[in-house]
Fold this protein.
Amino acid sequence: MRSIAIFGAVGALVAAVALPAYAASSTPVDATATLQQVAEDDAQSLVVASAATKAPLDRSTYSATTPEEIEEKKAEEAAEKAAAAAAAAAAAVPESTGGGGIDVGDYALVSPGSGEVRYPLPQGSYTQGRTTVGPDSGGHQGADMLAPAGTPIYAAAAGVVRNSQESLGGYGVGIIIDHVVGGQSVSTTYGHMTYGTRQVEVGETVSAGQLIGAVGSTGSSTANHLHFEVHVNGSVLEPYAWLAANAG
């Protein structure tokens, strides 16, 4: 009986030790757990289920996603820049007017700075005023160069005086000179001079830059200025552009 009791006690002890271990080994493992997590409670591995997908991208947060879309966007931006540049260039070019077929390419007749064409007023002595040319100009076919009374006026180029009067219609005291510039027939008009300041008469030959009169406000004028006109082969041109292209 004593032997039986001892064997029974040993069997109970073995059962007590073995059953928890068996229970632990039979516990199901989480399908998302890694081997490292099973082996070590403190494992720091990140586990992503195989069925997981990335969140959809919001198209409003970006402008292009493919090479084709990127190239298309670049082409659109380049076209916009080219259109803006063309508009700016067109705005900067004076309007071609008159019936003689003159266009902006004909403004330059000689090399700028050659001395063949001069500014009719000293540089820095005037400010640019009204400029109108063409059929819709209301009869104002030139540029108003605003300057103090008595400012000297010079011939824009060498030529022959066609007209010189104390009362040249609405021009008041005015002078018209005919020139040949760069092989082209050119005439320049100077209006609203001060009475008694004309320095040349009809038929007289003048040189470029020669003194011909002084700024005033005669004729159809309300302020001291030089009304300056340029005609090339019978067509009226915008004077400021013509001077810039030929006088420099």
Observations:
- The radius of gyration is 47 Å.
- Residues 67-92 form the longest helix (26 residues).
- Confidence is low (pLDDT under 50) at residues 17-29, 50-62, 85-104.
- The first strand starts at residue 127 and ends at 132.
